[in-house]
Design goal:
Jelly Rolls; 12 strands; 1 helix; five-stranded antiparallel β-sheet; mainly beta; 4% helix; 47% strand; single chain; 145 residues
């Protein structure tokens, strides 16, 4: 498992029958569960939530999302000037974003009806016991994005 957020590239195949999107290099051995996120509007922001133990894997099935991440330096009182990694994921490009344990994420849909598939390395119970939330504008002014 990588420590820094990283992308696994996939591909898209199109022919007269339609489109197939794939990420053949993704290994599901770490996955315990999955869920989808579809925000009510592009103004909705889900930020900031982090995990010390849980790894997350993000894949866009429709539209596009901005996903920001920060490596937490202190879980009780994190620095406000932590470096931010920003990723734009789109259903047009088949790729999975890996966010390792130790990071917090902020998520914003960039198009209406965007859908984000999230794979988790933890059960729901374990994830709930490993959940840390921070103020929405702690590291990013979402209104400026």
């Amino acid at each position: 498992m990588t420590n820094k957020p990283s992308l696994i590239a996939g591909g898209v195949h199109k022919d007269n029958r339609g489109r197939i999107a794939f990420v053949n290099d993704f290994n599901f051995s770490d996955v315990q569960r999955f869920y989808t996120i579809q925000n009510e509007s592009v103004d909705t922001v889900r930020a900031w939530q982090g995990h010390r133990i849980e790894n997350k894997y993000f894949y866009v099935t429709a539209g596009s999302f901005l996903i920001c991440s920060v490596k937490i330096d202190n879980w009780k009182n994190p620095s406000k000037d932590l470096p931010i990694a920003k990723f734009i994921l789109s259903a047009k490009e088949s790729q999975i974003l890996i966010i390792s344990a130790g990071y917090a994420t902020g998520i914003k849909a960039l198009e209406e009806n965007s859908n984000l598939l999230v794979f988790s390395s933890s059960t729901l119970e374990d994830s709930s016991n490993d959940e840390y939330r921070f103020k929405i504008n702690m590291w990013v002014k979402w209104g400026d994005i």
